Amino acid sequence: GRGGGGEREKFSIIADVDDYEVGFTMIYWGKLMDKKEEYIVDDGITIEAKILIKGPSGDRFRCFDKLDFFSPSSFSDVVLVVDGVSLHVERQILARDSTYFDSLFFGGFRESKETEIVLNDLSVKEFTVLLKFVYGTHGTRVDETNFEFLLKLADRFDIKKIFDAVEKFLLREGKIVLTTARLLNVADRHNFTVLKERCLDSLYSYERIASLKRSEEYKILSGSAKDEIIDLLIQLKEDEDYDNNEEHGENEESYNEEEEEEPY
């Protein structure tokens, strides 16, 4: 609390947090620092916060800050051999986020009884990055160096949380690291609805659409995505015709007014 008649403001935020980077706009900085608003008392502002944590956010129930998949641990119960390297993992953690591993470990297949399973056609470096995401290792981030192979692995092992993390990254930084054509292709291929809509919104001129259609990425877009681009062209033409008609109507009205002037 504050004395001197200082202004008070109370905020309540309820959040279901599943990301490391979180922020909420409760009051704008300009308003807070404006002396007319009377939040500042004796050149200071007092902020009191009450935080209630109702429970862990799903996959963060165990701390995995330092993981070593290359050695056995009290948590590992199966070995995955990738590119000749043994990786010690826990079945339950992998099965929780991957239908592939859920079926492999608990679907009644021969592998469900084995303590060592070989996974072919994988890079051990890339697969280790995937494991860190699945385990929820603190500090693991999607970036321009890993999002493509993460999508490939998420496809193979059916891991939705990886798709979600990659789409968030591309929505935030996609236009910095990729062309619109490439972004649209990724969004189309992986059914990233929000990202796809944002890409289509950026095609607001004939020039931008023409540039997209000249790209190699356009050739491998799905038929439905190409149909949406055709719809954009039709909308642009309709808007152009409407503007021309409006302009023509204004000119005609002006011409008629000149003709209707009374003679001297």
UniProtKB/TrEMBL annotation:
Domain BTB: 76-135
Segments for region (Disordered): 240-264
InterPro entries for this protein: BTB/POZ_dom (IPR000210), SKP1/BTB/POZ_sf (IPR011333)
PANTHER family referenced in this protein's UniProt entry, alphabetically: BTB AND MATH DOMAIN-CONTAINING PROTEIN 36-RELATED (PTHR47022:SF1)
Protein name, entry field: BTB domain-containing protein
